[in-house]
Write a structure and sequence with these properties.
Elements lengths: L6 H4 L2 H6 L2 H21 L3 H21 L9 H19 L6 H19 L8 H8 L5 H7 L3 H14 L5 E3 L2 E4 L2 E4 L7 H17 L4 H31 L3 H8 L2 H21 L4
Antiparallel strand pairs: 1-2, 2-3
Helix pairs in contact: 3-4, 3-6, 4-7, 4-10, 5-6, 6-7, 7-10, 9-11, 10-11, 10-13, 11-12, 11-13
């Protein structure tokens, strides 16, 4: 009688532990829930809405190709992925008030799960998802060191108010009205909104078949929409600051009002895509 081979024993450790897609789904869903919960608790409303949008798009992309994914990892890749998961969990316990790790969290999560599921060789299957999450990482402080648009935002807000009939002028990064003024610092210059729309434009590009000019036009339009919508937001805050309405000012500055402008900008971009993209 020939001895029967124990196929389970012959499998690599990574395949023993993670050959079931439910393991991967459970790990990913749990870490996504942790990320969104931390973002909400730290009152990062704009980052929360952006993360929710990006996670939804990534879930859709993964679902579209889940039957074609090659789930063949190896020991070193699995260990590297597990170490990344451990790093995410440890860092999450000592986050403080900084939001940079919250921006890096999703990219590290997809990278870790990709290593556990498919190894280094299989990471190319997730290039679309990783590309989308790259746009979540940069924050206003970093972007302002590369290109400061605070003065341009103040100038655009001044133009909007002047054409609306207000007695307004600009002094550096200050939008000045007769009864008050508002300073446009890098945090209010619109970097987050611009990056949010740039990432959203990439989502459209990876989901639909587009021509070369659409690949150029869509990101440029997204950046333009982000800049202009934020300039309108700054002009509204300038009027509220001049009227000494501090409650309304905080609402539009750091409260739910900032999310409303994000929704408006994404809606405009969606309408633009509806009329310009021709998906097959």
């Amino acid at each position: 009688m020939k001895p029967r081979l124990n196929l389970m024993a012959a499998q690599p450790l990574s395949q023993k532990l993670f050959n079931d897609k439910l393991w991967l789904l459970g790990i990913t869903a749990g870490l996504i829930a942790i990320h969104l919960t931390m973002t909400e608790r730290l009152s990062q409303s704009e980052l929360f809405s952006t993360s929710l949008l990006y996670w939804s798009a990534i879930a859709y992309l993964i679902w579209q190709k889940h039957e074609q994914l090659q789930l063949r990892s190896d020991g070193p890749s699995t260990v590297a992925g597990l170490l990344l998961v451990l790093l995410i969990l440890v860092k999450s316990q000592a986050l403080g008030t900084a939001d940079f790790f919250l921006r890096l969290f999703p990219f590290l999560l997809v990278l870790a799960v990709g290593l556990i599921a498919s190894g280094w060789q299989g990471l190319k299957q997730y290039w679309r998802e990783l590309l989308i999450l790259v746009f979540l990482i940069p924050h206003s402080g970093l972007l302002s060191q590369l290109l400061d648009i605070s003065k341009s935002t103040a100038q655009a807000a001044t133009v909007f108010l002047w054409y609306s009939g207000f007695d307004v002028y600009r002094q550096g990064v200050y939008v000045v009205l007769p009864t008050g003024s508002v300073e446009v610092n890098p945090g209010c210059a619109g970097y987050n909104l611009i990056m949010q729309l740039a990432g959203t434009s990439v989502i459209f590009l990876v989901m639909y078949s587009t021509r070369w000019w659409q690949k150029v036009c869509l990101p440029v339009t997204a950046v333009l929409f982000g800049f202009l919508v934020n300039a309108i937001r700054v002009s509204i805050m300038a009027v509220l600051a001049a009227s000494s309405n501090q409650t309304a000012f905080e609402y539009w500055h750091t409260g739910e009002g900032s999310v409303i402008f994000s929704a408006v900008a994404i809606t405009l971009l969606g309408l633009f895509c509806f009329f310009t993209l021709q998906p097959e």
